[in-house]
Amino acid sequence: MATVGKVIKCKAAVAWEPNKPLVIEEIEVAPPQANEVRIKVVATAVCHTDLHHLLESMSKDGFPVVLGHEAAGIVESVGSGVTEFQPGDKVIPLFISQCGECRFCKSPKTNQCEKGWAATGHDVMASSNYRLTCKGKKILQFAGTSTFSEYTVVNQMAVAKIDPTAPLDKVCLLGCGVCTGYGAAVNTAKVEPGSTCAVFGLGAVGLAAVMGCKAAGAKKIIAVDINPEKFEKAKVFGATDFVNPKDHSKPISQVLSEMTNGGVDFSLECVGNVGVMRSALESCVQGWGVSVIVGWTNLEDCSTRPIQLIAGRTWKGSVFGGFKGKYGVPQLVEAYLDKKVKVDEFITHNMTLDQVNDAIELMKQGKCIRTVLHVSPQ
Fold this sequence. Notes:
Helix content is 25%, strand content 24%.
């Protein structure tokens, strides 16, 4: 390709500072260095974690940055030492690396990795390395990916190669939201057949958790949200019951306890709100109830009374649904192609990269499940 080994000038949405609209700019994307892959981004979705960094974390050290981490694209070129990928491969960037060598990668107990951007830049959600520049300034790469751009450069340990027949404007959702919710149910909570579940928050992650509970064989799946318009959508993914906390004067944990003879077997918090995290835990049955924190936040402490845990409940967290990305993402792409996992049903809006601020506004107002930004032609 004519661009191999050269700096690419392309369009990207740059967040210059917190809590301000993104600006469509021409940026420079450097060629991939050793063990790196340069990707032409075909489609990317807007996730609440992008909004959390832009609107809630308010860390000025995390700017300027190109956001976006839920995407799919095509390999444009590779750096030295890359043998797993070649130009033309369809891929999904991974915000959790999988080096394959560290103690976490070698353990079946976790999908964490000691390498990648999180090892050096967890506080700013970006690596200290950068391949993007704009107007002479270095631009941080959010979660090591930065997919609100026509091109990006990612370390090969944070890329998953997928089926070449997969539609990239659909499977991009498997780069974060769908895997995160679905895996939290099947991998982290380990929902059991015949069990009773409650899912708090019916955004894309919550709906994917509902889908995971159904896939695991739960007999009762209670969808909890303060927006009743989301209940019909939840039914599509397998929810059997619906509760709006605003309809009740009692605490939601008490409402669910009364509905389920003492509490649910499994609960999943998919909001990123510490108060909801507590409610989700306290909605579980004593003795064996398991509550999983899935929603992303790092601003406040979460708390509960010790007796909640002493009584036998388990409180745990999940990131990216517990999937080791290089293995799990291609498998879920195949499951989607085999119609075993829903993806299309999450997409409520399709826009272009130029409309990224409109997409962010839709998510802020709770008017979308997932908006896909079409960045480049497939």
